[in-house]
Structures are given as structure tokens and as C-alpha cells.
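S., here's the first fold you wanted:
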Amino acid sequence: MKTSLLNKAQSCLLPLLLLFPLLCAAEQFVQLTAEIEINDWDYWFFTDKIHQYPGEDHPGSIFTQSQTRHCVVGDNTWMIESTFPTSKVTWWFTGTNLVEHNLITKETPEAVVKRLSQISRMAMSSPHVGQEDTHVYESSDGNPGRPVRVADLMGFDLPGNICWLAFCSGSFLKHEGRKINSPSAFWKESSIVSSGWSDQTDVFKDSLGLPNSINLITTNNQSIFQYQVRQSTNLLGWNFPLEFYGVQYLPTGANGWKLHLTIKGKVTAISVGSKPQIPAEVLKAAEKSQASLHW
């Protein structure tokens, strides 16, 4: 009887032992939701000094709502999803490409369209609900802010850029010769583009390697951008920030600097996730945008 039970236990254990290496090697993913608060002090000082407020008839409140982003993070792949009042924008990094998908979910209010037309001095109309656009960009490191000009930022918005730095930049930071850029793209039109900068970066000591702190410094020891994690948690052996903050500066005049913006971020939900899948119709559109796409 004992021998029979032992043989049965061994027969059940053998498949598990054979499967164990595969389970250990399986890709793991973490999904999270983050709220990002951005205060553009440079913009507020500028508009209040000239008493003009583009797109508005009167000063807008400096107390704004946080912006929410949903992320799925893997070792060398990620997804960042942004939901706006009239659209949803999803970004995927496949390890070799950045894929951007825009979906119009609601018509833009007529008053907003009219206001935008007045600002741009061009006749504008609301995009149709259901309209989609897909673009593919070659990338070996997943850095969405590599291009030099503001116009080349590929549609990655500021809160999305901050989420990428906080949650998705681990594989990028491992690349030899990588160059960390500050989240806001306005530095691309400033003098620091030609003078350059270095970084002092501390990463979490795990296989994902997200940043714990960053300090971007010019050649004359001026901080351009500072980032710091205040609270973190560990999931699947990876460290993720739960609360973080940052400050970005811009050059003004010959030797002066001014506060550009401050950011605060917090994770409101985090759990084990699954590999983000690019929908078949998006892949099809992506293949039209670029001949080869690896996922």
C-alpha cells in the first residue's frame, strides 16, 4: 500500500519538476494605475505677467486635477494607456518598436473646436467617433523622448513621459551610452541641447532596475531635472515607486535659470498582470505603417 502511494506521488511530482524550469523562465508582468500631478509654474508666471490666457477668457485655476495613466510593465516590454475626455491613446514597446494607437471616443464639444480655430486661425472640425490612427517607430531601448525637436516627440504627452520614466525605463537605463532626458520637451528648444549634461542616477537593485533617484546636471553643475522616489513596494522581486516627485528647470538669459515645473506621482493600484497584447486590427494597421513589426 505504501509503495503504491509512493509510486503515485512520484508520478505526480515528475511532471511538476519538469514544468518548474518553464514556470521560472516565464515572463512576468506588473499592472498598475498611477495619478500624476503637474504644476507648470513657468507657464503660470508667464500668463499672469502679460494678463493673457490662451484658450481661456479669464485665468484658469492653479488647482488642477491629477491625470491618471494605466501601465503594464515587463522586463523589456511595456504598455502605457492614457484616457482623455474625447480619446484614448495607447503605447506599446515591443522590445524593437514603439507602437502608438489613437482612438477617438467622443466628439469634441463645439465650443472647444471654435476656440481652437480662433487660436490657430484655421478652420477646424471635431474628429469622428471611432476614428483610429496607428504609428510605429523603431526603437531598441523604448525611450519615447529621444528625438531632438519638440515636434519629434511622437505624441507622447507629459504625464505619459513621467510614467515611462518612473515605471518603464528599466531596460533603457541598462543600455550603454543611454542619455536621460527631462520629462518636459521644452529643453529641446533651449541652450542646453548644445552644451549637454550628465546624470547621477541610482536604480533599485533588482533585475528590472527602475530609477530610485535621478539628477541631470549641466557642465557648470546646474541641475536640470531632479527625480526622487519617496515610497516603494516590491512585487515579483521588482521594486516599484508608490510615491515620487520631481522638479525641472529651464535656462533663462545668459546664466540664469528658472523653475519650469514640478511633478508628484502616486500609485493607486498595483498587482500581478499579464503580457499586454496588441489588438489584431492595430497590428494590421501597424504593419502598414512599417513593413516589419516584432512582438
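And the second, which I think is the more interesting of the pair:
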Amino acid sequence: MNTGQFRAITTETLISIDTFRTERLIAERLTLAHFDDMRAIDANAEVMATMGGVRTESQTRGNVEFNVAHWEHYGFGTWVLRDQNGNALAGRVKLRNLDLNGTAEIEIGYALLPQFWGRGLATEAVRACLQLGFGPIGAPSIVALVRPGNTKSEAVLARTRFTRERDVTHERLPYGLFRRPRPQGE
């Protein structure tokens, strides 16, 4: 496994991943202007129940700033998800560099607001991010960290061909580590 950071996307390898569409979602690159959107997600107790709990306003601000800086440095990161009309906030999805116990990985993550659960939208967003991760980002594999008991997230990963690799501790919390290798021939 590569122990360095994955390359930043350059103009030679990127047309544009700032915004993408799936069949039922519009994804737009996270900016500081999305603070209220991210706050709505981070303050939702149902959403955050499997992600360490509700974040404070200060924690949300720090998370947004971190993820905006990730975009600026690497050319990919967190996207805000809206419904197919671009109106209602649906959630967020991310691909970002992750140092997992000294090993560089590309991590996928997602969170939808409860009114968007149970419709296959997380699976749709993950599939789009896999195309970006294995395409212009060039990841040899993509990982996901799932808190114990989050069976809905595990089901999304199973549908998108991730397999459970092992238990890990990250930022002092236990997780299941799931991995999806680059498809053969790509």
C-alpha cells in the first residue's frame, strides 16, 4: 500500500469534478458558503448517531474549514448533495485522504438527512464517487470507516462491492474498515 499522499488532481487529469450529477442527486463542491448546510447535517441527532454524535457549531466550522483546505490542496474532497432539482439539501458525500495508522488511504464517507433515507440515494452517491476515485483521483483502492452497529451503512457498502477488512481505531473511536479495490483492467 502506498504510504504517501495521493496526488492532487491537476488540469491534465481533470475536466471538472467540482459538480456532478447522479440520476437523482446534484453534488457540488463544498465551500465556506455551505456552512449552514453542513450545520444542518451536523446538528441532526439521527444523522450523527452513528458518527460520534452531534457536532457543535465550532466543530462544524472546523470541519468545513478542514474540508475546504483539502479541496484546495488535492482537488477533491466533500460535496454537498441536493435533490435532483437542486433545491432541498439531501446530505453530503466525500472522498478524501486519510492517514490510517501511518498508511495513506482514500476514504469515502456519506451522510443523508433522514427524509432521504431508504431510497438508494447513498448507494447512488457512493457509486458516483467510486468512478471519480478510480478515475481522475487514481486511487488503487477506496476505504470506508463504519462505526459498530451501523448496519445501514454496511448495507450501502455491500451493494457497492466493499468488503470488511478488519476492526480499526481512528481518532480514539472503534470502526470497521471496509475496502473496495480498483476494478481489474482499470
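Why I say that: Residues 1-15 have pLDDT under 50 and may be disordered. Strands lie at 19-21, 25-29, 78-83, 89-100, 103-112, 141-146, 163-170, 173-181.

Talk tomorrow,
H.
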